[in-house]
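Lab manual, section 2.4: Encoding a predicted structure.

Procedure: take the sequence of the chain (270 residues), apply the prediction step described in section 2.3, and record the output as structure tokens. A sample record is shown.
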Amino acid sequence: MKFKVYDKDVFASTGGQPFDKNKPLVIFVHGSGLSHITWVLQTRYFAFHGYSVLAIDLPGHGYSEGPSLKSIEEQALWLSDVIDGVGMTEASLVGHSQGCLITMECAARFPNKVKSLSLMGGAGAIPMNPELLDLAEKGEAKAVDLMMDWAHGPAGHFGGHAVPGLHHINIGGTIVHNGSVKNALGVDFRACDNYKNGFEAAKKVQCPTINILGDEDRMCPVKEGKKLADCIKGSQVEIIPNCGHMILLEEANQALAIIKKFITTNHPSN
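Recorded output:
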């Protein structure tokens, strides 16, 4: 579906079911350079089990109109306006990587709008490798290749995608290449690198929160995910073995099982 925020078109996948304002809302927020496509397996479950789903494309990504927003703070404000823009008052938020920073900042600023917070592959800060950041800001294809290589754990490199015939690294790279306007990845990386408010935002989060971590994550290591969780009152931690940073793709079924239990407990369907 498409709707307007800041007079710009926003695209969101609804998981294969019509959007229904009478059902509790779950919003999925993708990571750097990615799009709504990364959430296909998770969103479909919730859409067919009593929830309204929005897997959003951030501005300048996928089918959403640009330009890309340049800071996590701007993106958090925009996410709050997404909730308003579809005529809802609250939502459960699910974020991956950069999406964790965005959803956490949103939950800290707008506690009355967020029922629960699921952070996947998150940390309080995501500093970028200077070489990778430079390549991304120049729009170099090598930036995507390096990102996909570094983001996947051993199993992701080997294969084992939930859809037969697909390979994790190749499909991830395809999403980045096809899902973002020029230089969106560089804008995203710079926004992550500049964001310094993660731990302060975490201390302000009031809703039930879960941190889902991959034990082979090299981008946001387990120790950093636990450090973030320690700042969020009552936060749960789930660690998925033999999994890298791309948890939602590498271990899609395990990721779904965890957020399914967490969200249905803290934000039940009607």
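Check your result against the sample. The first helix runs from residue 40 to 47.
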